Amino acid sequence: MGKEILKLQNGSDIRGIAMNGVEGEDVNLTRYNALAIGAAFAHWLGFKVGKNSFDLKICVGRDPRITGPDLADALMSGMAYLGVQVSDAGLASTPAMYMSTIMPYYEFDGAIMVTASHLPFNRNGFKFFTAEGGLNKADITEVLEYAASAHILPFEYNAESVNLMQMYAAHLRSMISTGVGGDLSNMKIVVDAGNGAGGFFANNVLAPLGADISGSQFLDPDGTFPNHQPNPENKEAMESICRQVCETGADLGIIFDTDVDRSAAVTSKGQPISRNAIVALAAAIGADDYPGGTVVTDSITSNELHTFLEDNLGLKHLRYKRGYKNVINKAIELSQEGENAFLAIETSGHAAYSDNFYLDDGAFLAVQTIINAANLKREGKGIEHMIADLAEPAESVEIRFNLTTDNFSEVGDKILEDMNTWAGHTEGLSLELPNYEGVRINYSLDGHEGWFLLRKSLHDPVMPLNVESSSEGGVKLALALIKKFLEGREGIDISVLS
Predict the structure, then answer these.
(1) At what angle do helices 362-377 and 164-180 cross, to 10 degrees?
(2) Second label for 495, Cα 20 to 30 Å away, from 108, 167, 292, 428?
(3) Which domain holds residue 369?
(4) CA–CA separation, 330 vs 317, rounded Å?
């Protein structure tokens, strides 16, 4: 197979270009790659759980991408080559694939989800699970190293078809029924699945409970994603569902990403609850059950959110790193040390509760949101009541600087090292401590308060810069100062600041 396959690693996932259709993007996630990766995962899993491959049971599901069926077939063929008992879940969500490893009756030794989340139609990838959760970065490296040396032939197999999503939907319905003490006949809810895998939530979870889902949109799976990017962080996607909620007079909107491991919400007034607000809502939902508990977030959360979590909800806030697995693993680590870290969540919408196996499940977060919205409606209140005290920054921007040298990682490290020193002797700046990613600096410039964070990208020759201000005009001042610091440096393109 060769070492080229190692380049498919994307942190704790595998991702690549699976079909032609975008100029300049050549296919590197092939059917033969998938064949080898399937066999490699089975090999890795056998060692992990102490079983012979003939005794392993592994389930494969997929999102609606055009290349999904072929790649899923190749994965199963590769595993069957080693004697694995393979099952086909068909169209599924990523969280449901994890649940297949712990759900009574199924309890598969492992599961694979074929998805590339919100990436364009020509991309695809794989997420892997055992009963302990999703594989970590080091695990994926091992799997790909096995695959690099594999010599697998296509193999005829018989996969058992499993209706995993039917059982998973029943599990979600049961949670809602218990949480609201009945059905949802008092609720009108718009669901936007973005033509991904989330349409089941409207049709098989909410509708059977009596909710009015008539205003829902883009529920049919379509791997070309013709309406908008299935992504709660995408501006066009959020504008679309906000309009739909207003036009249909719904009580609530729920939007999912392609594989339903992320979600966001919309109030009855068409206001988005995403990014910092979805973190605030997820924390508020759990605050009564976990008083004084810890919320672990990614690094780009706002100062206003920090104040809301600690002062308004009485929780502890640990601002950690970008990367949903980083956030989840940190919460698990704190929990094992005896800290009540009940929530790990990224501003992207990956939310993992301790009472849901630290699984980032957009449908689980949606269920909790709907339960609270339905109960609040009986009191004449909307879901926004739960985060009414959350202030928003007046200005917020993200800028991405391209690093232009082959040794971009070293260049990025040097810039961060110098910025750390610069902040220490520049008037109006102070380092945010503790800090776990890049350099985060609080500023006070001409009466404007705010912060900025410069960090290295997880995988690419890019340095993202996030800047926020509590008042209009602060971002401009901060950017001018940052530009002055970066000017003249080799290896970084700051033309975006011109």
Answers:
(1) 30
(2) 428
(3) 167-387
(4) 12
